[in-house]
Predict the 3D structure of the following.
Amino acid sequence: MSPKAETKRYELRLYVAGKTLKSVTALANLKKYCEEHLQGQYVIEVIDLLLQPQLAEGDQIFAIPTLVRKVPEPIRKIIGDLSNEEKVLVGLNIRPA
Amino acid sequence: MHHAALPKTPTGITGLDEITGGGIPQGRPTLVCGEAGCGKTLMSIEFIVRGATEFNEPGVFMAFEEKADELAMNVASLGFDLDKLQAEKKIRIDHVHIDRSEIEETGEYDLEGLFIRLNYAIDSIGAKRVVLDTLENLFSGLSNQVLLRAELRRLFHWLKDKGVTAIITGERGDGKLTRQGLEEYVSDCVILLDHRVINQISTRRLRIVKYRGTVHGTNEYPFLIDEDGISVLPVTSLKLEKAVSSDRVSSGIPALDKMLGGKGFFKGSSILVSGTAGTGKTSIAAYFANETCSQGKRCIYFAFEESPKQIIRNMHSINVDLQQYVNSGTLKFFASRPTLYGLEMHLVAMYKLIKQFKPHAVVLDPITNLITVGTVSEVKAMLIRLIDFLQEEQITVMFTALTLNNAVTEQTDEGVSSLVDAWMLVRDIEYNGERNRGMYIMKSRGMKHSNQVREFIITDKGLDLVDVYLGPDGILTGSAREAQMLQEQTGEVLRDYAVGRKDREIIRKRKVLEAKISSLQTEFESVEDELNKTYQEEELIKQVADKTRKEITAIRRGSVNDTIKIKTRKK
C-alpha cells in the first residue's frame, strides 16, 4: 500500500452508521473499485458515526453512507451505497466525466 | 371529565406565549413558516436563546442556511451573544452545509448522519430545545425526494421520541404553507409569519394556523422586531372580563371635573376629546398629563402631530410646565409620524412602551392622523385593541380626535365614540362675528354628568369652563357673554342704588317716629307729674286737717290732759 511519490494518492473516508446493509454494500463496492483502479494509491478510513458521532460535523455529514475524498483536493462527496460504478469513478475524479 | 392540560414550553418571546396560552407544545415539533425575510430564523433563534437564558433549557440550533458565525453576527444586533452562550454550553449551533455541486448521489442512502449529528449535539449539552432552520434546504441539495420525505417523517417521530421541543422552519410555497408540505408531518402546532406591504408600509404579522388540543388566538397578530427581539401583540383579548375601578382621576380642570359628577374620570377608563381644528384638544390633553404627573404618577404622551418640544413650548403659553415632569422622569413623550410605520407597528410600539414604563395615564394626540396609514375600520380595530389592553392594565387613556366637519357628523371620526367611556366634544360656536369654544360632555358612562354646554376658555393662566349665557338670541359666548355680563352688572348697580335709597328713607322714617315717640313720652311724664302733684297736695291737706282736728278735740277735753301733766310732775 505504499504509493510512489509521482503517482496520485487518494485518501478516502467512508462514513457509516453501524453495520447496516447499505454500509456494508458501500464498503464492499468501494474496495472493489479501488482495487480495480487505484491499486496501491489509496487509503480507506471507515468511520462509524455510532461510535464517533462527534466526527459527523467536521465533514458535514448528513447522509449515510457518505464517501469523502479528502485527498486530492478539492473535497468531493458521494452519498449512497456506491452501487453505480460509473458515477463513483467520475465523482472521485478517477475517470474524467 | 377533566383532562390534563397539554404541557407547553414557553418561548420567552414577548406576547407569543400569551397567544398560545403558555407556549408551544412541549416535546413536540412546531412548524414556523413564512416567506423569505419574514423573521423565521430570528424567531427560532430567540426561542433557543430565551430558553437558554431565561428558562435554563439548553438548545440546539441546526442551521441549514446560514453559517454559525453569520448567524451570530446577524443576531448580535438583538443583544444575543451566541458565542458566549456556546462557550457556556447553553446552546449549540450546528451548520449543515449542503451544496449540490459537491455531492454525488449513487445508490441507496438515508439521513442517519443527520440524526446522529443532531443526537450528538442534543446529548452534548443536554438540550431541551431544538431548531431546524430551514429543513427544506435538504430538498434543494438532494434529488431523491421520496427518500427525503420518508426520512423527514422519521425525523419528526424521532424528535418526539427524543422529547425535545422543536421548531422547524419552512419557506412558504404556492398554495401551501410550506414549499415541501412540511405541515403534513407537523401536526401539532403551525405558526405562520407574514410580511405584507400595504400603502408602502410594511407590517409583520403572525398567525397560529393550527394548535391541536388547545385554545389559541386565531387572529393575525402584528409583531415587531427591534433591539429586544420579537414582540408579538396579543391584540384582542378573548374575554371581556376586565377588572374595573371606581376610583376617580382628575382631568386637571376643576370645572370639568365638576361637570363629571364632581370627581373626574374613572380610573382605567378611556376618554375621547374630539373637536374641530384649533379648539384646544391638545391643551386639554396636556392638562390631563400635567395633572397626572403633578400627583407623582407616570404618564406617556404619544404625539402624532407635534414634536414634544413643540408641545412643551406651546403649553407654556397656557401656564402648563410639562418640562419639569419630563426632567423628573414621570412624563414620557413618544413622538412618531403616523406614516413612519404601519398601524399595527404603532400599536406594538405603544404596547411595548406601556409595558416598560407602566404609566398611570396615556395620551394619544391625535388619533385622527393614524387614518393616513390605515382605513377607518383598521384604525378602529387597532383602538379597540389598545383600549382593551389599557383597561386590563387599569391605565386611563385620553384620545384626541379631529372632527373634520362638525356640521355633517358628530359621530366621530374613527368610530371610537362608541368604545370610549367618556366623550367630550369641543365645538366652535360662531356668533356675533367671533368664534368661541363650547364644550359638551356627550357621554360619560357610569356617572352623573352635566348636560350643559360650557364655554371653554383658554387664557394665559390656563383652561377654564364658564357657564354660557342663554340670551334672547340663543347661546351667548365670548364678548357677547361679556356684554351680557356687563349689562347684568349695570342692572345690579342700579338695583343696589334703588335699594339703598329705600333703606335710607326707612331709616329716616324710623328716626322721625322715634323722635315723635320720645316727645310723647316727655309729655306723658309731665302730665303724670302734674297729676302726682295734685294728689300729694290733697294728701298733705288731709293730713294737716286730721292733725288739726285731733288737736282741737284734745283742747276741748282740756283738763284731762292737764291733770296727767300735774300728776307726773308730783312724782
About this structure: The longest helix of chain A spans residues 21-37. Chain A has one domain: 10-83.
